């Protein structure tokens, strides 16, 4: 039926100037025909009926395209993590059900951009957990909400698992837990797979298996042409590597084939500490991160949390020890933290799903949010300097309504950064020569738009001071974790010149007309 609509529209096609569309003029990665059903002429004629890209998609996909004030559209917006992303209002939301839907839509949008220059921009959205506006949503454009691409399929031999990009990690883990399996992924139940994996990904399992992206055996990707390809060690290996950290710059990932491994319940949870013993804790962190015998089962997120009303700080440590079958309770590797007086503890043996649900409680949706990040050599002195910078820069905004302000330190030791080399490589630009590193994440939450500029200014000041102290202490590192970066940071250039050049080469090869650079403006672009 839809096909006949297109064919009849093609019969009455008006000439569209500026288009040089020969259906057979193809290159391997820039075909001007869609491999399933539609020719360029058909799509071109559809668009030339003075339709917009949204209405053209509606003709092809019917109710999979939704508009403001409809249940699907409103539910899509309401499910972004931050208010800033929720406030962005696309002209329509396209909700594909299959990779073929994604493929045809990209084809239509690609042709559409030539008919209506600047009017067919789109955004790619999986779990919608990027804090800043426009990363996975778009004003006056089309948001491709992949929410129905959320299957989890374990291979018969139980060594791999296929994950649809819009899975929230809770859905992945609950299915794998039930089978005594797991995979590398996010640590908070509600976060999406698509953004986390293509941006790198830090997992409880990272000391065992590296960054999450290092565990992707194959990506299934829709390219700018609409072509669906695999990217893995033997097929399009340059694209495989590019997608390991290169975010949304190459195509829309419709499936991740991930390494799976046996995993049972393990010990971990939160402990609360006071800042009275801050110096001891930061030294414990440095020793933990820098140990030549880093325990690969040990994962730590050390967070300093401000109470803006009183101006006092407290500490919450997420400590997880992923050894299972049997689980190990209170392992010695955490002793320098667990032996300190605790204000609370949720330490227990439980499933991975349970652990990620616990972390989700402290990260609810529906607030104004800011992430900003830095990476530094492992140094208690630097961590103290960042804490001091965090404390001084927040003073001018302590009266911001609803303010929450916390600093999280996460070990990024060589046991993590060395894994890429044996797993096919990634684009992040980190390796053993960087030494043991610390990833720093500032999380700020507040209520009102009116305070956006002030909060951002304080965050910038914090990282400027952190950079200055890192320089003094000789612990600078250019890497910025893309998934924690603020929109005013430039994580991709921190991957280093060689990686940036490889990413640009992959973009030129797989997306020669730059659809994912220009027509998908959100997120972090290659420059
Ligand atoms: C509460 C919370 C907890 C977090 N915990 C962790 C953690 O434990 N470990 C960690 O490493 N990070 C963590 N993060 C950071 C997280 O990795 C990023 O926010 C990530 O972008 C989330 O992915 P998403 O699919 O939900 O995001 P989205 O906002 O949907 O997407 C993020 C970016 O990726 C692009 N993208 C999404 N899907 C695709 C796709 N299929 N193909 C191509 N491009 C795509 C989007 O266009 C967008 O630019 C956390 C974030 C939050 C808010």
UniProtKB/TrEMBL annotation:
<keyword id="KW-0560">Oxidoreductase</keyword>
<dbReference type="InterPro" id="IPR016166">
    <property type="entry name" value="FAD-bd_PCMH"/>
</dbReference>
<dbReference type="InterPro" id="IPR050416">
    <property type="entry name" value="FAD-linked_Oxidoreductase"/>
</dbReference>
<comment type="similarity">
    <text>Belongs to the oxygen-dependent FAD-linked oxidoreductase family.</text>
</comment>
<keyword id="KW-0732">Signal</keyword>
<dbReference type="InterPro" id="IPR036318">
    <property type="entry name" value="FAD-bd_PCMH-like_sf"/>
</dbReference>
<dbReference type="GO" id="GO:0071949">
    <property type="term" value="F:FAD binding"/>
</dbReference>
<dbReference type="InterPro" id="IPR006094">
    <property type="entry name" value="Oxid_FAD_bind_N"/>
</dbReference>
<feature type="domain" description="FAD-binding PCMH-type">
    <location>
        <begin position="86"/>
        <end position="263"/>
    </location>
</feature>
<keyword id="KW-0285">Flavoprotein</keyword>
<dbReference type="Pfam" id="PF01565">
    <property type="entry name" value="FAD_binding_4"/>
</dbReference>
<keyword id="KW-0274">FAD</keyword>
<dbReference type="GO" id="GO:0016491">
    <property type="term" value="F:oxidoreductase activity"/>
</dbReference>
<dbReference type="InterPro" id="IPR016169">
    <property type="entry name" value="FAD-bd_PCMH_sub2"/>
</dbReference>
<protein>
    <recommendedName>
        <fullName>FAD-binding PCMH-type domain-containing protein</fullName>
    </recommendedName>
</protein>
<feature type="signal peptide">
    <location>
        <begin position="1"/>
        <end position="20"/>
    </location>
</feature>
